[in-house]
């Protein structure tokens, strides 16, 4: 289930808003948690939702590993709770997408499709997007057998057959993790050798549940309500085959949604915003929370935790500035 909406670009200059104590860019777990903390500290807090309201987790049918919900809950339910929790203390949600930022002036200036915003403190919680295969069936069956997170969704594939797409470290790590649940894991890779490190490769080779399809790419993901099979093409021979699976896990990289900060905040070579242990960025008054600055953990709980850290730091920094 997706809560995405499309934002049209209005004609003419964007109207200007007042200056907020804190603006949080992003309405995923990191953004809502940051907003909960800053609004509860009586800071005037605006959350700019972005096109994917609720973030990535809003697209999954069940979240089983968020503490405090022993029966699990759906992704949309979780983000609705996170939103309500932040609104309870006064945070306001704005349906807009930031297209441009100027962090060289203070208050910071953010330009969205709907209006221009000013923030005394800025929390960047724009997340990251798993790189997609971009094949027919992928979008429709996401959360219905197509997944980008083994830690999150592996449990739902007990005694099922799954495919893992990719040949790097994360593909192999996730393939190994998935063998805890699945009866068979097939790694489908477009080349004839893996990019993953040798130690990881030998662990995979020793695992009797894992098999390979080399030189093979996915052309289409098939299934009515859930994934039933993959249409595969051999890259050398061009041969097309149908491969039955219950789930497909895609690990061909992540792309942080940080384009608008290029040249303004220090990022690593992959585009993740550089941060210290206090979630500070290279610009004083700007913090990063969640996957936009985290290529490693990629969980709701870790992203939410970073949101709380960034918010506490922002509140202390604003206090230190005085009025
Ligand atoms: C299908 C799926 C299932 C998952 N299941 C689980 C699970 O069961 N358990 C678990 O712990 N984790 C799960 N994850 C991982 C989890 O969703 C992420 O770790 C988490 O959502 C990251 O939170 P975030 O707030 O950093 O970023 P995101 O959730 O990526 O949210 C980013 C937000 O930023 C906004 N944004 C981006 N650019 C802009 C902009 N320019 N202007 C304004 N807003 C912007 C977006 O609209 C979005 O609201 C799953 C991920 C996927 C894809």
Describe this structure in words.
By secondary structure, the chain is an alpha/beta fold. It has 2 domains: 16-130 and 254-321, FAD/NAD(P)-binding domain (3-Layer(bba) Sandwich); 146-250, FAD/NAD(P)-binding domain (3-Layer(bba) Sandwich). It has helices spanning 29-40, 75-88, 150-153, 169-178, 198-206, 300-321; strands spanning 16-25, 45-48, 92-94, 98-102, 108-112, 116-124, 128-130, 146-147, 161-165, 184-188, 210-213, 216-222, 229-234, 240-244, 247-250, 254-256, 286-288. The strands form 4 sheets. Strands 1, 2, 3, 4, 5, 6 and 17 form a 7-stranded mixed beta sheet that branches. α1 packs parallel to α2 (75-88), α1 (29-40) packs parallel to α6 (300-321) and α4 packs parallel to α5. The longest helix has 22 residues, at 300-321. Flavin-adenine dinucleotide binds at residues 25-31, 48-53, 55-57, 59-60, 63, 65, 97-98, 125-128, 130, 143, 147-149, 152-153, 257, 260, 290-291, 298-301, 303.
List key phrases describing it.
323 residues, alpha/beta, FAD/NAD(P)-binding domain, seven-stranded mixed β-sheet, five-stranded parallel β-sheet, 6 helices, 17 strands, 22% helix, binds flavin-adenine dinucleotide
């Amino acid at each position: 289930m997706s809560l995405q909406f499309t934002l049209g670009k209005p004609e003419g200059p964007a109207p200007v808003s007042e200056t907020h104590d804190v603006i949080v860019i992003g309405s995923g777990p990191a953004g809502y948690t940051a907003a909960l903390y800053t609004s509860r500290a009586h800071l005037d807090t605006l959350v700019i939702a972005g096109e994917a309201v609720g973030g990535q987790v809003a697209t999954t049918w069940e979240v089983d590993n968020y503490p405090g919900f022993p029966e699990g809950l759906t992704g949309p339910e979780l983000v609705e709770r996170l939103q309500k929790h932040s609104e309870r203390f006064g945070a306001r949600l704005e349906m807009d997408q930031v297209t441009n930022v100027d962090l060289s002036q203070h208050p910071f200036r953010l330009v969205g499709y709907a209006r221009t915003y000013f923030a005394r403190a800025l929390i960047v919680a724009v997340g990251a997007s798993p790189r997609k295969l971009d094949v027919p069936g992928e979008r429709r069956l996401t959360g219905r057998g197509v997944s980008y997170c083994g830690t999150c969704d592996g449990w739902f594939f007990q005694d099922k057959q799954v495919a893992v797409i990719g040949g790097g470290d994360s593909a192999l790590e996730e393939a190994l993790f998935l063998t805890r649940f699945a009866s068979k894991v097939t790694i489908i890779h477009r080349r004839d050798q893996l990019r993953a490190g040798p130690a990881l490769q030998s662990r995979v080779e020793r695992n009797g549940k894992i098999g390979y399809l080399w030189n093979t790419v996915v052309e289409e993901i098939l299934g009515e309500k859930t994934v039933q099979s993959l249409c595969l093409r051999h890259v050398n021979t061009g041969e097309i085959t149908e491969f039955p699976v219950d789930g497909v896990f895609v690990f061909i990289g992540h792309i942080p949604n940080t384009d608008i900060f290029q040249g303004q905040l220090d990022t690593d070579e992959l585009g993740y915003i550089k941060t210290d242990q206090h979630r500070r960025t290279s610009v004083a008054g700007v913090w990063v929370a969640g996957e936009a600055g985290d290529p490693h953990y990629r969980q709701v709980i870790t992203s939410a935790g970073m949101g709380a850290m960034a918010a506490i730091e922002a509140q202390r920094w604003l206090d230190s500035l005085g009025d």
